[in-house]
Please model this.
Amino acid sequence: MADEPIESLGGITPLQAACKPNIDAIAKLGRNGLLKSVPEGFHPGSEIAILSVLGYDIAKVFEGRGVLEAASMGVEIEPGEMAMRCNLITVSDGKIVNHSAGHISNEEAKELIEYLQQKLGNQCAIFFNGVSYRHLMKIRGGDKHINTTPPHDVAGVDFKSVLAKPLTESARQTAELINELIIKSQELLPEHRINKRRMAEGRAPASSIWPWSPGYRPTMETLMQKYGIVSGRVISAVDLIKGIGVYAGLPPINVVGATGLYDTNYEGKAAAAIDALKEHDFVFLHVEASDEAGHEGDIELKIKTIEALDGRVVGPILRAVSSWTEPVTIAVLPDHPTPCLLRTHTSDPVPFTIYNPETEADSVDRFDEFEARKGSFGLLSGDRFMKALMQK
Model:
């Protein structure tokens, strides 16, 4: 939900423009600062930012986005296997139109992935169905030393210019296989009845696969090992976040109607978090809606998603835990900025607020990218945010 000043909003950000009394109340009651969630030298993907928010050393634990999503999907990554996120995207006239195939439905995507597995899958390459446009591909004998591009970073770009490229000679065969699968998918997918129907209805077709973010099975300490947490849970609609939770020792809670978009079940997520806090001492609640609005470049929608987060998630949680005998610490923050005018992620520090009922507040009285700079935490990086959150 972090952004940059927008001229059409009078030179303020969506966070500044949104009506968010509950998040502002947490900022006023708590302590504030900025977090450098994307370490130097790393791409500002959600996988990097969220691992960083949770205090992990990215250089030691990061093995690509695909393996994290595989954990959520229950797909085992064996020795000698490589996993990759595999988007369904829209390519038209040789250019990447969007990263999500028009936010294709789960049902349509499932049929298309099963079709691709039937036509392209073999002993080497295997496709696994995920959620909406987010899927998984596993390559036996794959070499992760390839350069791949997230499709949400290259809307409007000729797809051939951003195909997989080997970083070492030993990875050349893997890069060539991935690019061959992309080309073959572009021959197969437009002829499928689902895409013919979508095009007839004026909707974006899933006309190509786009594999990216390769890696092997990671080795990670759980949050219990790192911070002495007794037990915890993760709540998200996104396989990536659930997969991080699996490796971090946070089993996922699945909420009916959680979509990862602006129409997600906000109230259901809030209720699940409240119930989980009654049994567990750490809950990581993730809402994707503002990120997707940023990728769409939809300023009005982004403001609405921030207000929905405030009124339908943060408000109910804050009211519920305020009456509990045992104090509950609440932190609110984005994982990375997704500016509407850029329509992709950036590495800029994000604002955060931590409200611990037993800790004195600082002078900040509302939550946004600029007020957070005045907070008593200053600029944090590495595991310092998690250590601040866990401080008693």
